[in-house]
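Thread amino acids onto this structure.
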C-alpha cells in the first residue's frame, strides 16, 4: 500500500466518523426536542382539561343566571300588571 492510498483511506475513515458523529448528534437533538415537546403537551393537556372544567362551570352559572333573570322578569311583569 502506498502513501496516497493510505491518505485516501484515512480521509474516508475520517468522513465516516464525522458522519456517525453527526448522526448521533442529530438523533440526540431529536430525542431531546421530542422529550421537551412531550412534556409541554402534557402540561397543555392538563391546562385544557382545567379550562374545560372552568368553561363548564361558567356555562352552568350562566344557565342559572338566565333562569333567575327569566323568573325576575316574570315577577316584574306580574307585579306591574297587578298595579295597573
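Threaded sequence (84 positions):
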Amino acid at each position: 500500500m502506498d502513501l496516497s492510498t493510505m491518505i485516501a483511506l484515512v480521509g474516508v475513515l475520517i468522513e465516516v466518523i464525522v458522519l456517525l458523529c453527526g448522526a448521533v448528534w442529530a438523533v440526540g437533538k431529536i430525542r431531546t426536542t421530542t422529550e421537551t415537546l412531550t412534556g409541554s403537551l402534557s402540561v397543555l393537556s392538563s391546562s385544557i382539561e382545567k379550562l374545560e372544567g372552568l368553561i363548564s362551570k361558567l356555562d352552568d352559572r350562566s344557565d342559572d343566571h338566565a333562569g333567575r333573570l327569566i323568573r325576575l322578569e316574570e315577577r316584574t311583569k306580574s307585579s306591574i300588571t297587578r298595579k295597573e
